[in-house]
Amino acid sequence: MTQKTDIEIAQACSMRPIGEIAAAAGIDEKYLEHYGRYKAKVDPALLKETSHTPGKLVLVTAITPTPAGEGKTTTTVGLSDGLRRIGKKAVVALREPSLGPVFGIKGGAAGGGYAQVVPMEDINLHFTGDFHAIGAANNLLAALLDNHIQQGNPLGIDPRKITWKRCVDMNDRQLRFVVDGLGGRVNGTPREDGFDITVASEIMAVFCLADSINDLKERLGRIIVGYTYDGKPVTAKDLKAVGAMAALLKDALKPNLVQTLEGTPAFVHGGPFANIAHGCNSVMATRMALALGDYAVTEAGFGADLGAEKFLDIKCRMADFTPDAVVVVATVRALKMHGGQDKKALSEENTEALKKGLPNLLRHVSNIKNVYRLPCVVALNRFPTDTDREIACVMEECRKLGVNTVLSTVWADGGRGGEALAREVVRLCEEEKGDFTFSYSLDGSIEDKITAIVQRVYGGKDVAILPAARAQMEQLTQLGYAGLPVCMAKTQYSFSDDPAKPGAPEGFTVTIRNVRVSAGAGFIVALTGDIMTMPGLPKKPAAENIDVDDDGRITGLF
User: What distances in angstroms separate CA 240 from CA 141, 230, 251, 385, 396, one per listed residue?
Assistant: First the structure.
């Protein structure tokens, strides 16, 4: 029998009308704005008018990604369904997928198997138009900036010091570096320019961290777009862009409500990448999940060194969240890849490769437990080829750190396969109180914070700051931005800045080549290694396999 694909499973699901999902979650119809039968936006006024005691906050993260797959979003969805199956009121909060990976290498990002959020095709494609609104606001600011220069440049903006880029939600390496404004004076001022992918835009970060329209406008106003000839920053507020940008974003700012395959309420809202941005869903969606559920389950992108670090050091700091428990997702297959086993041989038992790869998991677990001081459980996604000896090996090593390992089969069994994990999460929340701390203090210099992340979270030895980045750090310090948290832009494939170093490398140095401020978001961005803010498509893009038939049924969206 042929195994069903994710999209086939999702299309076979009988979804409940979104009004029923909202009612079950305690959302009155007056707060809903319907986008068809199965999607709705929820008015943020709900947060002011609910009397529900905030629920427990559960963060799902993972080991360093490999081509073998780990299943973080799938586990997040399956855990939420599992919690409801054991009698707990759970709500899940996830990020919206970017069209770049959907048409690039990853495909869909709405969970997998029998642990998905639906309507899967809508969520993975245009959804409710949030990303289009974010891109429009970003590009409006770019247009106003260039128009200001064209119309006489009264602010004295230096075209060579413009930092704001246009964006598009697609992997398109051709747009990384461009020259525009060509064709004579009436067609603009010629200058070097470039595009970021929408999920790397500061507008996306601002969108996800804002907790109201007023906060959104204040953050938008602080965005720095470039510098004057005498080195002073120019902001979106200086360009009188804030009101129009907020008008484009006002509807998008309302969290999106959908459902899991098993009818668990799910907020899917915002979608910054965790390797080049802060990698978490919106603060407003997380607040709604906490306000409506006894357990709010959320995930942060890529491995715990990226998404979880930024969730804890940036999002929790700004939104005053304190996680009650953390789930670290791993697979035997991925750990064997970290230990050097070839992808084609992952179905073969190999405890030696597993033992060599286990330090990757153990470092992530140790960071959660010993750096951030939070209760933690390892969710081991079981594959049919995993042997009892391999599973026992993982459990034994995690036990040495004082952390339990729970087998998860949510891909195949949905919420039923997440019940054991759900029980352990409930136990952690009720019996093990954390002593949450950040990995660094805001009092130190920009370099101090970068060094703390590299040494305490990545396990590296040192930081090498290139001369250009050093000059940028000095300038930002002089401008008063040294007290902001740091958002590291780093490869997702290694603790280091070298994607060719899997496992748990030691003694490495992380190179900082560029440092810039996202003043609206409220953090410093440090670019490491060869990280790009505009990805490219692979040799065989996933887009080549996607199609739609005469009935409008989409295929190939895995």
Answer: 9, 21, 21, 60, 60
Which amino acid, one-letter code, is at 275? N
Is pLDDT at 107 greater than 70 in this prediction? no
Dist CA 484 CA 157 (whole Å):
25
CA 353 to chain centre: 30
Task: Dig out the tokens for 145 from the structure.
Answer: 């900036």
Pairing verdict, β 265-268 and 295-299: unpaired
Helix (H) or strand (E) holding 137: helix 130-150
Residue 385's CB: how many other CB atoms inside 10 A? Answer: 12
| Helix 213-222, helix 202-209: angle, nearest 10 | 150
The span from the CA of 366 to the CA of 369, in Å, is 5
Q: Alpha helix (H) ranges present in 267-418?
A: 283-292, 309-310, 316-319, 332-338, 351-366, 388-400, 410-413
**Interatomic CA distance for residues 282 and 269, integer angstroms:** 6
The answer to whether 490 and 476 are in contact (CB under 8 A) is no
Closest CA to 210 of 123, 286, 292, 310: 286
- In whole angstroms, what is the distance from residue 138 CA to residue 141 CA? 5
Q: Distance between CA 224 and CA 211 in Å, rounded?
A: 20
pLDDT in tens, 297-347: 999 999 999 999 999 999 999 999 999 999 999 999 999 999 999 999 999
List the Cα angle 412/414/415 in 5-degree steps: 145
Q: What is the rounded CA–CA span in Å between residue 359 and residue 141?
A: 45
**Residue given tokens 């490491």 in the structure block:** 528
Structure tokens at 125: 């494609």
Token pair for 186: 């009436």
**Helical axes 130-150 vs 202-209, angle rounded to 10°:** 130
Q: pLDDT tens across 543-554, in order?
A: 998 999 998 999
Q: Taking Cα atoms as reference points, which of 208, 159, 157 lies closest to residue 180?
A: 159
Per the CB < 8 A criterion, the answer to whether 219 and 520 are in contact is yes
> CA–CA separation, 290 vs 90, rounded Å?
9
* Sign of the alpha-carbon torsion through 293, 211, 100, 494: negative
Task: Give me the half-sphere count of Cα atoms (radius 13 Å) on the Cβ side of residue 228.
Answer: 11
Instruction: Tell me the catalytic residues.
Output: 72, 74, 95, 106, 274, 302, 383, 411
Whole-Å CA distances, 190 to 146, 180, 193, 341:
10, 6, 9, 51
Amino acid at 173: R
